[in-house]
Amino acid sequence: MRYLIEHRFVENSARAGAKFLIQRKGLSKQMIGEYLGNLQNQFNQDVLECFVDEIDLSGLQIDVALRTFQGFFRMPGEAQKIERLMEAFARRYCECNPDVIKKFRTTDTVFLLAFAIIMLNTDLHSPNVKQERRMKLPDFIKNLKGIDDGDDVDADLLAGIFERIRQSEFKPGVDHVTQVMKVEQTIVGKKPQLAQSSRRLVCYCRLYEVNDPTKKEKIGLHQREIFLFNDIMVVTKIFAKKKTSITYSFRQSIPLVGTQVYLFETAHYKHGVRLISSLDGKPLITFNARNEHDRTKFVEDLKEAVYEMNEMEAMRIDEEIQKHNRHSSDSGVVDIELLKPCDPTPNRFSAPELKKSQLTNSLTDITDGAIAQRRGSEGSLDSGMVSASSASNMAKEEIQNQTKSPKTTSGSRLSALFGKKSRPSKSQLRQSTTESSEA
């Protein structure tokens, strides 16, 4: 966020930052939750207040409103961060539902209910809680006795909350990480961890690996299923194919930073693509596409991703150089010049030059008068190639989002937290949830 503000992609205001987090696609829900829960940075806290103001919670039951609210991010694990998020939610809910609030003796009841709902969701749906120890409705009602400044919350209201959460787990909104997680579940074998907050799926396509471009091989002999992410290329082979799902076996992964892409044509391979390391010039892998259309679309996506990663690496190196120079000026050590990665992807073979995109960090269209928008990769491939959204649905089983709610909390801990006659304080909430997280 600081970088975007410094380079005028985002206006230097909390409200602009909040709108960016809500409206901009391609942001990790987990990182949004961590950002909003940052208690050390006042700007982050200001963004949180503006963030909740952008969400309309009018006319919703408190658990439904909380579900809507949490759909914009992934709940962090620290109790203090959860408490801060629940305070902001409670304030906004009270503003949007003044008639509902009149039924409570104090607005703090909304905060306590929201906190209890988060803990109930964890208790009912965490795989770490045994079925026989999961919260029951009578326990839930009993544990919340007296939270409304000494009075009880309506039992029917609590029963409705309990039943809705029991039937449907709280889940954060779908993002690019969710998509990568689904793809990761379809690949078997010793593969790198694919699901990362910075990684997104660009495209999926089918190519044919070529061992020697000068030798003819049987068509389709080395069929490969390629998952191109923004930072790596994962090469797989179909392992098992069913009516409703496909499983892939992992073969290799190739980092895109410092990679060059070349097109070639031989007597046996008319639509060749070769990846070469810019460090030593050694070939990394060679493919042949089924036709020129497939090759062009794939190479456009590939070159765009390589260019983006090289720019990101150059920025990282610049930052390291600045840190090094600051350290050297303080210590008297002579500066050491670092080399930056080469400009990517010239074409040395016979295929026509493919136009290189502008810096594709998906941020250029935020401001007025920005340079050309990023060309969308999704849906760009056909003739056997499918978009990222199609690729993610290949597996039959839906991969559950792993919420970052507080750690497993048993019924006994909830009872200890909410079973008192008097309303528990926020400090007690924080202490109890911290213990639950440690457990």
Automatic annotation (TrEMBL):
SUPFAM superfamilies to which the protein is assigned, alphabetical: PH domain-like (SSF50729), Sec7 domain (SSF48425)
Spans annotated as Disordered: 372-439
Polar residues bias spans: 400-413, 425-439
Cellular compartment(s): Cytoplasm
Main subcellular location of this protein, as a coarse class: cytoplasm
Molecular-function GO terms, alphabetical: guanyl-nucleotide exchange factor activity
Gene Ontology CC terms: cytoplasm
Limits of the SEC7 domain: 1-168
InterPro entries cross-referenced by the UniProt entry: IQSEC_PH (IPR033742), PH-like_dom_sf (IPR011993), PH_domain (IPR001849), Sec7_C_sf (IPR023394), Sec7_dom (IPR000904), Sec7_dom_sf (IPR035999)
This protein's UniProt keywords: Coiled coil, Cytoplasm, Phosphoprotein
GO biological process, one term: actin cytoskeleton organization
Family the entry assigns: Belongs to the BRAG family.
Name the record gives this protein: IQ motif and SEC7 domain-containing protein 1-like
